[in-house]
Amino acid sequence: MRYILSILLFLIEFYNLAGQGSATDWPIYRGGPELTGRSDFELPVNPKLLWSLSTGARTKSSPVVSGGVIYFGNEKGTLFSVTIEGNIKWKFEAGSPIEAPPLVYGNKIIFGTSDGVLRAVDKTTGKLIWSYSTENQIAGSANFWVSGNKSGIIAGSYDYCLHCVNPETGKLLWKVETDNFINGTPAVSGGKIVMGGCDGMIRIIDPLNGKQKDTIEIGVYIASSPALSAGKAYFGDYDGTLYCLNLISKKREWKIAGNDESGAILSVPALGNGIVVIGREDKYLCGYNSADGKLRWKYRTNGSINGSAVVTSGQVLFTSMDGNVYILKLPDGSRQWSFNTGAPISSSPAVIKDKFFVLTEDGRLLAFGIKQ
């Protein structure tokens, strides 16, 4: 009985870590370790701006949420903890720009900085728990894996390596060397780590030992991250091409080629209800059939789309460098709502029940929802 209870408690902890978990959580960039950008909660039909908080410095980070508390960083090197009412709870000064979104893991906020240091601070107090140094910039968010009673925190660096550290101590467990910068976030699903890099390779890695199971050559910089679902990886490259890769057969199921005007794909695909949603530098957000890559719809903004969309069962939430936040209808891409923030936005939204949060490049955290 004690053994069964231990297993149940572990599973509860794992599911709380692995996804939204509750109405007040978006604990990881893209919502879960698979990086699909899928929210369990529908967005308000006509959301209102609830509050705005200025941090006094530019930011490209994206917010995450745990227990109704929002966490994010800025280019001044400050990590913020902000209450659901928009009040600063605590700040941690890292001394180097925080470009990547943080990760909430248990009682820790884990984040990388431009000086190549991965840090864990206590999410209640903001006190430093551990730090781990790579040899170059960390531009992508950390992720995590859990296998049995073992776990690890993984983060890519511009030192050409994917690093895996112990979540409790920050000590190195293993690292995988690549042939160029790692700019994005590694995705985790089905006992696999899947990552792209500026060496133009997709790598499939065993999380327990860091051994590479497979490498698939794409041949073009992959500046962003893959999204994983049903044994497939969806990702874009620097030439603006979108791919669907079967992780079992290691074969490409389809690709949508970019052109001279499409620009790079810097965002992560959002996956929901058989549709892949992706934005490009050509100012278009597009919805494709996940099965065959057929275009369903496209929506043009007035700025490049560098941040990643979030999808619900029927909606798409995304931002643009034109300064707008948009909600579209997922089936046909028609606009439901938009809001002009007055500043470019390159980050991705965080969504909880009845609310969502967006960071503008001039350093403001905006909260949207239903006014009571």
Quick recap of the structure?
This protein is mainly β.
Description:
The chain has 372 residues and is mostly beta strands. The chain has a single domain (2-369), classed as Methylamine Dehydrogenase, Chain H (7 Propeller). It has one helix at residues 2-18; strands at 48-54, 64-66, 69-73, 78-82, 88-93, 103-105, 108-112, 117-122, 128-133, 143-147, 150-156, 161-165, 172-177, 187-189, 192-196, 201-205, 212-217, 227-229, 232-236, 242-246, 252-256, 270-272, 275-279, 284-289, 295-300, 310-311, 315-319, 324-329, 335-340, 350-352, 355-359, 364-369. It has a four-stranded antiparallel sheet, with no helix packed on it. A hairpin with a 2-residue loop joins strand 30 (350-352) and strand 31. The longest helix is centred in the N-terminal third of the chain and has 17 residues, at 2-18. It is globular, with a radius of gyration of 19 Å. The N and C termini lie far apart (46 Å). The model is unreliable at 1-20 (pLDDT under 50).
Figure out the total of helices.
1
Q: Radius of gyration over alpha carbons?
A: 19 Å
- The number of E-state strands comes to 32
For the biggest β-sheet, the strand order reads 1-32-31-30
Helix- and strand-based class? Answer: mainly beta
**Low-confidence runs:** 1-20
Report the portion of residues in β strands: 35-45%
End-to-end C-alpha gap: 46 Å
CATH class: Mainly Beta
Q: Please give the share of residues in helix.
A: under 10%
The biggest beta sheet is recorded as: 4 strands, antiparallel
In CATH, the homologous superfamily goes by the name YVTN repeat-like/Quinoprotein amine dehydrogenase
Characterize the overall form: globular
- CATH architectural group: 7 Propeller
Mean pLDDT: 93
What fold name stands as the CATH topology?
Methylamine Dehydrogenase, Chain H
Number of domains: 1
